[in-house]
Design goal:
16 helices, 378 residues, membrane, alpha/beta, three-stranded mixed β-sheet, 11% strand, six-stranded parallel β-sheet
Length: 378
Amino acid sequence: MSPRLFWIGLGNMGRGMCKNLVEKGGLEEPLLLFNRTRQRSIELSEQLPAGKTEVVDSIAAGVAKADVIFIILSKDDVVEAAADEILKASDINGKLILECSTIHPSTTARLAKAFTDRGAEFVAAPVFGAPAMADAGQLVGVLAGPAASVQRARPFFKGVMARGEIDMSDEPYEKALQLKLIGNTFIANMVEQIAEGHVLAEKSGLGTQYLHQWIEGMFPGPYAAYSTRMLSGDYHQREYPLFAVDLARKDARHAMSLAEASGTRMRNVETADAHLAQVQEHAGERGDIAGIYGAVRKEAGLKFENDWSVIIGLVVISAMCVAAWILSPKGENQVLWRSSIILSIVSCYLMWAITFLAQLHPLIEPRRSDLRKEFIHH
């Protein structure tokens, strides 16, 4: 009989991970769901196949029924508060705790001791990937702890919630979080570099469209995705951030703390964090890590938002059309020249505008083709 699973935390990552557990985890009993905002649990449960999930009213209620407990929450103090509720809930002897949050290594070590002292098994299991990757089951998990506990956790990762895993069996729990924090600095540095590059391209007269094409050709994937989010205006128009600025700054602080304790510095992260502080001041809770682009723009004398990208493009295209009308070679084929050039210019603009607008507000959601019909839902 498969173990009963309990999930705590339904943020941008947690929802996608739960979806894949339900669809591919081979669960024999409904997945137990808890979130501080109960409505989020209810909404996710309604989106997933009927009878595959069960919303619980408290952490204590979920712990009492579960064999395996997943935790993925936003910050160290929130994780520690949930851990306290688990420890107070009931007998946790023999239960497996999988801690997937991005927290400080020392917090992980402290939680591991508290749980294992009570007879539970513990695996530090942070994951790499964006929310879209969580939804698609394409995360990379990092599993640290006793080999037997890691082995017990692995069936829920590769092939279910993740496309791969980094096995740290019998390594200290803290190492998983060290890797996670250092890995996240690559994301901060990537966003900082793309932002600086696009601002320089705009200010120097090169044009951001050419740099974007280069990024798509050389660095497809996360680089191209962040470049699109910046140029399309998604970084300031999104109602809910994909990677909230306060969480990005929390990760940066943890990484810089780790570096200081190790006798080194992460100067690139310090620069990114300074820009994130400006994003936080400008946008508050709605700020996203991609907003670094807005902060760099502002430093360069540009407006934080790039609201007018499509309109500016329209103005430029209009000017080009007028020039084509005036400068077309005279003669019996002048009308043909004018029509061909203007139609080509307008078509290129429409293709560019539609692509960017579609990436900002897609009308059709990407759908995996390997799901059985009974698991396809809207």
